[in-house]
Amino acid sequence: MRTDNKRVKKRRLLVVDDEKLVRWSLREALSEEGFVVETAASGNEARQIFQEFEPEVILLDIRLPDANGLDLLTEFKEQNKDVIIVMITAYADADSAVKALKAGAEDYVGKPFDLDEIQHILEQCFLKQKLHRDVDFFRREQRKRYNYDNLVGNSLQIIEVFKLIKICAETDAKIVLVLGESGTGKQLVARAIHFHSARADEPFIETNCAAIPEHLLENELFGHEKGAFTDAIQREKGIFEAADGGTVFLDEIGDMPLSMQSKILKVIETNTFRRLGGRQDIAVDIRIIAATNQDLQGMAMRNEFRKDLFYRLNVMTIFIPPLRERKEDIDPLVNYFIKRLNEEYGKQINGIDPLALKCLKRYDWPGNVRELRNAVERAMMLEDGNVLTARYFSKEIIEYADPSAPDTVNTGPASGTIPAATKETVNKQGIISLPPDGISLDYVEKELIRQALIRYDGNQTRAAKCLGISRDTLRYRIKKHKISLSNNASELSTHA
Question: For position 170, what pLDDT does the model report?
C-alpha cells in the first residue's frame, strides 16, 4: 500500500458487494489511498447511488441478491461509457472473466483478494484511462491545428487548393503529389488531407528525403531484421510499417536517390515492401503524399528522376502558387498570424497599420508564406504599441518599397503613368515598346536583370535597388533564369 504523503486527485469509487466485511475492508483501505468511497449491498442500491454519486470507478460483485453483476455492468456502461468497472467474483473462472471483459469491464479479481492487488489493478486502469484522454486530446488538437481555417486565403488559386484537399481527403486518394516553392505550405496541405480523412485516427509520419543520407533512408522507410547489418541487434519497424492504416508524407521527394525511387514505386504498385535483411513481403495500407519544390517533370525528362515513378505520382496533384502570385492573400494571412502570435506570446496587437500592410504587399516574398510569418513574428516581438507598424520589418522589406507609395502589386510606376523621359529611354532600348511579333515576358525580365548587373559590375544590392526589388528576390530570379555570374560583369550570360 502507498505510504507517501503525495497529494493525489480524490476519485469517486463505488463498491458493490453483498458481503459487509468486503465493503468495510475496501472502504477503509481505499479511503486511505485517496478515494471517496461509497458502498452498496444490492443492485437496486447500486443503481440509486450511481445516479447520485456519479462514481468514476466501480468495484462490482458479479453475484448480487437481486441482480446479475454482468447486467449491471452493461447498464452502467450504457449510462457512462467512461466509468471504470472492475468485477469481483468468488467464481474466478475463465468463463466469468471473458464475459465481463467482453461486456466492458477493465479487469476482474477473484475472492479472496489481496488489497495490494486491487490497488495495482486500479492504478493500471487509471493509467490506461489517462492515456486514452491524452490521445483524444492530441487528436483534437491536431485536427484543430490543421483545420481548413489554418489554410488562409481568399484568392481563386488558394480556393482551388482547398477544393483539391477536400477531394483527396473524402475519396481516400492513395497517392497525392503536392508541388510548390519552399515556404508555400506543402506540409500543411499534407496534414490537412490526413486529418480530414477517414485515416485521421491513424498515424501521420513524415520524412525529409533530402535530410537523410542515402544509406540510412532505406532503413528509415522499411526498417530492418535482426542481423541485417552490424548494429542491427534487433528487428525494427520502418516508417511504412509504423504508419499502416495512416499516411506517409515524403517531403522533398525530388532529392530521393534513384536507387530508392524504384523501391518506392514497388510500394505504390503492390502495397508491399521488405525490411532490410528480410525475405518476406509485408503488406500495408497507407496513403503516400509526396511533395517537392522541384520541377519533377523536367527532372524526369532529363533522367534525373524516374519517369515511371513521376507518372505514378502525378495522378492527384495539388499545386500551391507562390505568394507573389496571390498577394490578395497577404491581408488575411497577416491578420491570422497576428491572432495566433498574440496567443503564443501574450501580446495585444489589434491589427496592422495600413502603410505597413502596403509595404508587405509590395514585397515579392521569395520565401513565401513562411517568410511572411517570420516577418510578422519578428515585428510583433519588437512592437511596443498595440498596432503593428513597418518600423520593425527587415531592411530588405523596408527598402523594397516606400510604405507611403501607392498600393500596387508592382514596384514600378502604376500602369499607364510612365513618365515621358523614362518612356523615351526604354523605347530607345527597344524593351517596353512591344515588337510587332510580340516578345517573351520571361526574356524581358531576364534581360533587365542582366543589364542591371552589368551596369553595377555584378553588385547585387545596387542592381536590386535599381530594379526596385529586394536582394533576396533578385537572387531568386537570377536562379530562376539561370543567369551565370562571372567575375567580369560584362561576361554575364544566361543559359536556357
Answer: 92
Q: Rounded distance, CA 321 to CA 369, Å?
A: 11
Same domain for 223 and 86, yes or no, is no
Number of other CB atoms surrounding residue 269 within 10 Å: 11
Alpha helices, DSSP H, located in 289-352: 296-301, 307-313, 330-345
Angstrom distance (rounded) from CA 235 to CA 227: 8
- Pair 452, 445: CB distance under 8 Å: no
Domain coverage including residue 432: 420-494
Are 429 and 452 spatial neighbours (Cβ–Cβ below 8 Å)?
Answer: no
| pLDDT tens, position by position, 72-101 | 998 998 888 888 899 887 755 557 667 777
* 305 lies in the same domain as 337: no
Q: Give 211-249 pLDDT, tens digit per residue.
A: 888 889 999 999 988 888 888 888 888 999 999 999 999
CA 263 to chain centre: 26
At 450 the pLDDT is 87
Claim to verify: residue 425 and residue 487 sit in the same structural domain: yes
Q: 299 and 187 in one domain?
A: yes
* 53 and 94 in a common domain: yes
Check whether residue 315 and residue 356 sit in a common domain. Answer: no
